[in-house]
Structure formats: structure tokens, C-alpha cells
Amino acid sequence: MRDYVERLMARGEMHVVEREVDPRFELSAVIKNSQARDDLPILFRKVRGAAMPVVSNLYGSRRRIHEMVGAADGSFSRRWLDLCQGMQASEERFLKPVPMPGDLRETTMSALPQITYWERDAGPYFTSAIFLAKDPETGVANLSFHRAMYVNDEELRIRLGTTHDLTRYHQKAEAERKGLPAAALIGTAPDIFLAAAASLPIETDELSAAAQIRGRPVEMRPCRTIDLTVPADTEIVIEGEILPNIRRPEGPFGEFMGYYVPVGDNHVFKVTHVSHRGGAIFHGLLCGSPEDIVLLQEATSARIYKALIGQARGVLDVSVHATLLCTVVKIRKTYEGQARHVAMAAIGSHLDYNKAVIVVDEDVDIHDLHDVWWAFLTRGRADTRTTVIADVPGFYRDPHRDHWGKLIVDATKPLGREAEFERRRIPGEDRIRLEDYFKRG
């Protein structure tokens, strides 16, 4: 991550905050306001009460995400599918053992930046932490994101979702009345971050996947107190175990949909050791912000795209708008009813983010919902091109069934009338550079 920060700094793609900021609300307020203005990352040099700087919004740009994977055509989904098609599940050659780094320093949880993001958050949270653990039976490594509420130097409380691989790992250990050794990684290399966010087959070792993304082995160093190895270039590593048969209150917390998750009895992570590299940079992620959502959307879009191209004709690309539980699919339309076929397949491919599925033509920007709804409302009737599917389960964390039911929207042009819907354009508008026309001052 540090190398990536330095590259962005050298390119002039980093906001730098030199004044001291309060980690309670002020830091997150700066992040939120900055993200409303542009997509540049932010480096906070001085955070009150912490001995290390904080960086945020590294992954809040679709352009930078595409650059990381080499998606030159602007489609993460197609590029990710290409990467995964040649990916090996797990091989030792992808992981290179190295000794303990000489600049490694011991520290405590309380010495790390204690960031409280939202007004009603129960306390400081570690939001960018990637938990690394191995399947107790197969040894396959899993990387996954879980919010971690700071309690004290010995304890974090985390939430394991019902669909996560880490949940299955913990259940296996718990059945044997054992804790699950795990390490929380803060400040990983971008390819580790991508692999943790991606949807990969359960037999795929996600560290091996990261190595294949970067094109060389991941250097792995041993932990101090648990039988795991971790990527040696990780800025901060929190070692410990997820305790068996113990749940304690966690929350409230400002979640990605824009609301607070209420207090719940969630898993307990017992901290056994904390270390950081010399000159470490802490990664703070504002939940529900572009940094949280962009990568989630791209990874989920790739999963749905992969499912769709095996079932439906004419699928060109997919965009997921996660905070709205909405998926938009771009197609090349060749027959009536095609949009509904595609939408039904999309609903079956991923239940969580398909409360609404909108299908559009190839001239629509699927990442711009204004463009998407413009297409729907200007290309035909509103009453005959929508379909409601009742009583279908939706988002997995939905005890009151608020997200049951599905909406299908056909926003495509009527066949045979395409000429009526030709979009107006100005020749050469894409080549205009306003700085060549406007003088400063």
C-alpha cells in the first residue's frame, strides 16, 4: 500500500492534510466532504492521539480500480473474468516465505488511530481490516472484510455475515470447541485488497489469487503468536483468534446503506499481538463512501456478468449500485422480451443486490443512474415495461423482510423504432479541453 501511496503522490493524485485532525468525527467529516468534490485519496499527516498518519479513499475511484487490473476498455467485469479464467486455485509457488522484517515494531491496539466515523457509532472502528484465516479442514486461506469495534487492547468485536467463508471456517472450529486463529490486516497491497473483495470459488486460496493478479509471488512472513503467515508488506497486523461460543454486544454502527446497524450479539476477536512496519500508514475507510462501495460494486458486477453471459444472449456489461440494491445490465437487443430474460437471469445470479434490475441499450451509461432512468422514461411506456415479482427474498440481513420482492425495468428501445431514439451529439465534443479555451483569473 505504501508504494501505491507514493506513486499517487508522485502523480499529484493525493490530497495532503498537514493540520492535526481529531479522529472522532472530524477526520470522517473531511473524508466525506472531499469525496463529494472529487475522487482523490487523502493523507492525514497528523491524527490526534496516534503516532502514524492515516490514508483514505485509495479505492474510491473506478478509474483507479480499472487501472489496477488493466481494464483498458473500461469494463472491470470483462477484465476480471479474463483474469479468473486462467487463475489456479492454489499452489505453493504463489507464496514465498520470508523472514520477519527487520523494521517490524510491536504496539498496542490503543496506540493505533482510534477513528469514530459516524455520530451514533458505539466507538472507534477498524473498517478496512481484512481478516485472514484458513479453513481448519482444507487449509485454504480466505480474505474477507469485517468491521471491528475496538473494546480494549485485548478485544475486538466483529460481525461475521451468514454467507461469508470465514463464518464457515469459524463454525468448523467452534464445533470442535476451538477458537479460529486469524489475523486482521490493515494497509495491504492493492492486489490483496482486490482479492479480498472479489467473489472467488471456495476452493481458491485468495492469497494465491492476489499473487496471480500482481504477476509474482506474495512474500509471506510468520506471525508471532498464531500459526499463520501474513503478507510481509502489510502495514499493520493484529493477531488473535475468534473465540468459540461467545457473542457480545457490538454496535450501533453507520453501515453502507446509510443507516445505523443496531446493537447485536456478535463474534469476539481476542487480540494476542499487534505489530506494524516502521513508518506505517493506517488505512481508514469511511463505510458507505465511494471507497467502500466502488470496489464492492465492481466485484459484484463481475460475479453477475459471469453468470449472465452463460445464460442470456447479448449481454455487454453490468453495473451494480450496491447502496440502492440495484443492478443495471447493458445489452445488444435483438428480440422482444430479451430484457426480461436478462433481468430474470440477473435476479437468480445474486440475491443481495438485485432488489431492482434495469436493462438498457448499449448507448446508455450504466454507471450513471440519471442516464439509466432517462432511457426508461423517454423510450416507452412506464406501465407496461415494469414487472414486480412478489415475495422473493432479498438482502441476507433483512429480518423484517423490507427487501423482499423484485422490480424488473425494461429501459430498452422498442425494436424497429431505433432511429426515433438516436441520441443527439456534437461532433468533436469528446476532444475538447476547456483549459485550452478558458483563461484563469
Can you walk me through this structure?
The mean pLDDT is 91. The protein is built from ten helices and 23 strands. The chain is globular and about 70 Å long. By secondary structure, the chain is α+β, with helices and mostly antiparallel strands. Helix 8 (290-309) packs across helix 9. The strands form five sheets. Strands 5, 6, 7, 8, 9, 10, 11, 14 and 17 form a nine-stranded antiparallel beta sheet that branches. It has a five-stranded mixed beta sheet with strand order 19-20-21-23-22, with helices on both faces.
Offer a concise description of the structure.
The chain has ten helices and 23 strands. It has helices spanning 2-10, 26-37, 62-69, 76-85, 165-175, 190-197, 206-214, 290-309, 338-349, 369-378; strands at 15-17, 42-44, 54-56, 95-97, 105-106, 125-126, 130-134, 141-145, 148-152, 155-158, 180-186, 218-222, 229-231, 236-250, 253-254, 260-261, 264-276, 282-283, 315-321, 326-331, 356-360, 386-389, 406-410. The strands form five sheets. Strands 5, 6, 7, 8, 9, 10, 11, 14 and 17 form a nine-stranded antiparallel β-sheet that branches.
Q: Within the CATH hierarchy, at the fold level, what is the topology of the largest domain?
A: Pnp Oxidase, Chain A
Which percent bin holds the helix content? 10-25%
The low-confidence parts are none
> Any idea what the CATH architecture of the largest domain is?
Roll
User: How many helical elements?
Assistant: 10
CATH class of the largest domain: Mainly Beta
Beta strand %: 25-35%
Could you tell me the mean pLDDT?
A: 91
Number of strands: 23
Secondary structure category? alpha+beta
| Total domains | 2
Radius of gyration equals: 23 Å
> How would the global form be characterised?
globular
Spell out the CATH superfamily of the largest domain. Electron Transport, Fmn-binding Protein, Chain A
Cα-to-Cα separation, first versus last residue:
38 Å
Q: What characterizes the major β-sheet?
A: 9 strands, antiparallel
